[in-house]
Specification:
With about 270 residues, the protein is an alpha+beta fold. It folds into 2 domains: about 10-85 and about 265-270, no CATH class; about 85-230, no CATH class. The chain is built from 6 helices and 12 strands. It has helices at about 50-55, 125-135, 150-165, 190-195, 200-205, 255-260, and strands spanning about 10-15, 20, 30-35, 40-45, 75-85, 95-100, 145-150, 170-175, 190, 210-215, 225-230, 270. The strands form 3 sheets. Strands 1, 2, 3, 4, 5 and 12 form a 6-stranded antiparallel beta sheet that branches. Strands 6-8-11 form a 3-stranded antiparallel beta sheet, covered by helices on one side. A 3-stranded antiparallel beta sheet has the order 7-10-9. Strand 3 and strand 4 form a beta hairpin. The longest helix has 13 residues, at about 150-165. The protein is elongated, with a radius of gyration of 20 Å.
Length: about 270
């Protein structure tokens, strides 16, 4: 499937909360949990009419074939918009200087996303990949990295890493523009603005996310102005951690017991 273009692109929008299929039987496209791909735990399931609608909006979708393996599912994220615009940070909206706090446990010395070379951003999966990244307890490799233009947030992240016993904590200060940047890859997204584009109130209003920027792929080494080691900074008790969103993993066992059994869907095909 085509990679999303720069500056402005369009993506499908899915319901942010899990819904039982029998609550939305008229929906023709669902995002559902899957273990088929090792680094991305979602698959898109569609009925024929849903596939036809998506094919008109996005190039490179896998073909809809009657003989494709298919089966039922109970819970999924139903599609609510076929196409909504998403904007990257460009021009004066792109901070000149950004910071990224890293530690020894991060791959690629912290300057490449965990999903670098493993997970590719496509319009069909964009919202789901962002949701995975923003869920702290999700450890799926992400094609994004969290950065900030706020020194106060840098200090907060350092305190959190120190409280977790992380070693090799350091701060990369880097330019977000320059000839070393491949803009087709190094797209930058301001989280609150993503909240408006993806209709996500939490991204728009969460205080902790107001100065957060998601950078796709990697930081070019040539753009790094300086790297500061912070292991010797005295430890200070961190402020209360921001309230975590409900994990996108399975519901708790207690919730599952309260949830009435749902009707399994039929007539859906899985993207191949």
């Amino acid at each position: 499937m085509d990679k999303v273009p720069v500056e402005l692109f369009r993506v499908p929008l899915f319901e942010p909360e899990w819904v039982r299929y029998d609550e939305r039987p008229e929906c023709t496209v669902f995002a559902v949990k899957s273990k088929v791909q090792p680094h991305f735990r979602f698959k898109i399931w569609w009925k024929k009419e849903g596939h036809e609608q998506l094919s008109k909006c996005y190039k490179g979708l896998s073909k809809y074939e009657e003989q494709n393996y298919h089966g039922g599912f109970v819970n999924g994220l139903p599609i609510i918009e076929l196409s909504v615009p998403v904007r990257t940070c460009i021009g004066c909206q792109r901070p000149k200087i950004l910071y990224r706090v890293v530690h020894d446990a991060q791959p690629h010395y912290g300057i490449k996303a965990r999903g670098y070379g493993l997970v590719h951003v496509t319009p069909l999966h964009f919202q789901l990949l962002v949701a995975n990244h923003m869920e702290w307890r999700c450890r799926d490799p992400s094609p994004f990295m969290s950065t900030t233009d706020s020194l106060e947030k840098v200090r907060q992240i350092i305190r959190i890493y120190q409280s977790k016993g992380m070693t090799g904590i350091r701060v990369h200060k880097f330019r977000s523009n320059g000839p070393e940047w491949e803009q087709e890859v190094g797209r930058l997204f301001h989280v609150p603005k993503l909240g408006y584009d993806l209709h996500n109130l939490h991204y728009r209003t969460c205080h902790y996310m107001q100065r957060e920027y998601l950078l796709e792929s990697h930081i070019p080494p040539e753009s790094i102005i300086e790297t500061t080691e912070v292991e010797d900074i005295p430890y200070e008790s961190p402020p209360p951690s921001p309230k975590k969103r409900k994990a996108v993993e399975d519901d708790s066992e207690e919730e599952k017991k309260r949830m009435p059994s749902g009707k399994r869907c039929t007539g859906f095909k899985r993207e191949s």
